[in-house]
Amino acid sequence: MTVWLLAALVAILAGVVATLLTPRFAGPTVEAGPHLRAYRHVPIAVLGGMGATHAAASWAETAAFAVLAVSAAFLVVIDLAEYRLPDAIVVPTYPLFFGALTLAAALENDWSRLGRAAAAGGVLLVSYFLLAWINPTGLGLGDVKLAGLLGGFLGWFGWPQVLMGTLAAFALVAAVSLILLALRRVGRKSEIPFGPWMIAGAAVGAAWQPLVLG
Known about the structure:
By secondary structure, the chain is an all-alpha fold. It is built from 9 helices and no strands. It has 2 domains: 1-109, no CATH class; 111-214, no CATH class. The protein has helices spanning 3-25, 33-37, 42-55, 59-82, 87-108, 111-134, 141-157, 159-182, 195-213.
């Protein structure tokens, strides 16, 4: 099976799972409900599933990254609509994601990568918690919890990816904020959801770090 065929299959599966999970998170009291019922998260899940295949070296890694991609798709749409990252999505993703990484480490007999992923997740979790404590209007606890997942993802690849992905997130949200200010779509004190840019930054860190840093 070629890489592109496998990527297409994983992408389709990610899209199907995202579609099937939609009723669970698109209730009538959910502000992002109309966006989810329009399945705007599904194309994001499909792209994430395709990216997961290209980033992974084994089926267990593919599963871990695909799980994160499906969760991220929901989180992007919900955070843009509601300025929150629900525990109902973030928390269950932890055991699924790190469980799949543990299986990948066992299959590859490379426990150092799992240790680094756990350490990176812990470092970002604590770092974001301190930032949220210092400036609670800038970051929420949802961002803090998401940071642990994204830190684990980036840490699986290496510490340079952790640095690149983290810096990319802040650079992206700064650029978007400046553009929205210039277009007068937001004011200086307007709230900008950070979750989508954390996710985008993690994707940039994983994809481009080798080209940028070495």
